[in-house]
Amino acid sequence: MKIFTAQQIRDADAYTIMHTPISSIDLMEKAAMACTNWICKNYGEQLPVYIFCGMGNNGGDGLAITRLLLNRGYQAKAIILHHSPNASADHTTNYQALRHRYPDSIHHVHEIKDLPPVPENALIADAIFGTGLSRPAEGWMADAIEQLSHYYDQHTVIAIDIPSGLMADASSAHMPVIKAHHTLSFEFYKLAFLLPENAALTGEVHILSIGLLPDYIAQTPARYQVTEATHIHDIYRPRKPFSHKGTFGHALLIAGSEGKMGAAVLSAKACLHTGAGLLTCHVPRCGYDIIQISVPSAMCLTDEQKDHSSVFHNNVATPEAASRYKVIGIGPGLGTAAGTAWALEKLLEHYHSPMVLDADALNILGASPHLLRKVPQQSLLTPHPKEFERLFGKTANDIERLELLSEKARALQLNILLKGRYTAMAFPDGSVWFNATGNAGMAKGGSGDVLTGILTSLLAQGYAPKEAMLMGVYLHGLAGDYAAAECSQEAMTAEDIIRLLGKVFLELRKYA
Questions:
Q1: What does this protein need as cofactor (predicted)?
Q2: Which residues contact 415 (CB under 8 A, 6 or more apart)?
Q3: What architecture does CATH give domain 2-226?
């Protein structure tokens, strides 16, 4: 799914109006009907609904929703905030329609003292400012937004299209924004919905279709996209009957240190459960028995050090040795001992194919930034926000961090993801994708180690680096969703994600 800018969304509306018999007021009615249907499906008519409307088209949506709810027997009231002397044409049309049929359902607000009290059991719908907002709310409207935000703790708040005060394409940090439990938006995710700094403002986002023409969507480029199941179906390559283990690659996983061998085990199991043909694990001597017992399908090489690894570069120090492995994954539970850091540098000097670098491998790079230039191009880096900060520095807000992510991916020719609810993936070609699978139950130790194993496995099987990242993050999140459904977000563990990878692949096979 493409993520369009606020201007592109307006253009999509205009394109649909121009190329179909539908008018702008009819398109607004479709949006209002979609919201009304959602409200009626989720909340009974015994609850009064207070809809706060601005003077633009977002307010026009709110007025139409008020009328449609009243038609269905709901107790609905439109509170119009006159933040501008002029209303949009479609706002005026819907205002006249509402006033004609339900004149007592409208309350006008010209200053903060005019805001009416809201009953304790009421639903609140926010339709004040839409995506047209280009600057922070000011004056009494800023105070009104601040006051309405206090309803969040006592009422269910539903934002229409976007929470008022939130910028669709820019950072809204430190701006007055109405907090919503649910956001009902149309056709596309907005960039603002995918940023961690806005999570507490948007609540759960619901994308409702209003029938915008697919021609415009298909032919209009977008810098950002959200991975959908259809993308993964196109990437996935089912196994052919005469395949053998060599067909699916030999991966080397360098992981583990004393007290952190669990990370190596999780990553190794995930690598095998994702389909790698062969797996060799390089671990310190303390991990030999652990790997051999926990992951018997894997081969095991041990370092000369007992509690950490320091000479793993010997496994790939010559062209002959390097040719054994289709890919190297490194980092889970590795530790950051001086010997390990030295060995990573030597590895980067000898191995020139795309790698997967995670966890302590990234922490070593963060402590020695000059090593970033030695990472093979097209490698996959998988930092969480703190690791990203150590690698590339601090930013003032999520928009700046997203720009930095994209800039580094292009400059270094690396595939870099930034873990989060909507993991962002930046690629050397300049594109940025977000992943929507996954849930808060995955916010546990070991989940990242599982992802490293998945990505390493996909590269070993011959998937291109961009394909491996898009598919790997999606599969990881979907297995997490299956685990949450089966075990609950609280009780699920990283092992459950691995266990349910098979269910994910069975689902993929249906569309192969």
A1: Mg(2+); K(+)
A2: 378, 379, 380, 381, 409, 425, 426, 427, 428, 465, 466, 469
A3: 3-Layer(aba) Sandwich (3.40)
Domain ranges of the chain: 2-226, 250-509
* Res 415: pLDDT: 98
User: Which residues define the annotated binding site for (6S)-NADPHX?
Assistant: 57-61, 130-136, 161, 263, 333, 384, 449
The average confidence (pLDDT) of the chain is 95
Annotated binding-site positions for AMP: 419-423, 448
- C-alpha dihedral over 460, 462, 468, 472, to 10 degrees? -50
Distance CA 78, CA 65 (A): 9
Sign, CA torsion 129/132/137/140: negative
Give binding residues as ranges.
57-61, 126, 130-136, 161, 164, 263, 333, 384, 419-423, 448-449
Instruction: Look at the alpha carbons of 12, 15, 20, 22 in this order and tell me if their dihedral is positive or negative.
Output: positive
Question: Which of 113, 108, 54 minimizes the C-alpha distance to 86?
Answer: 54
- The domain at 250-509 falls in which architecture? 3-Layer(aba) Sandwich (3.40)
- Kindly indicate the confidence band of residue 136, based on its pLDDT and cuts at 50, 70 and 90: confident
Q: Give the annotated binding-site residues for K(+).
A: 58, 126, 164
C-beta of residue 133 within 8 angstroms of C-beta of residue 165: yes
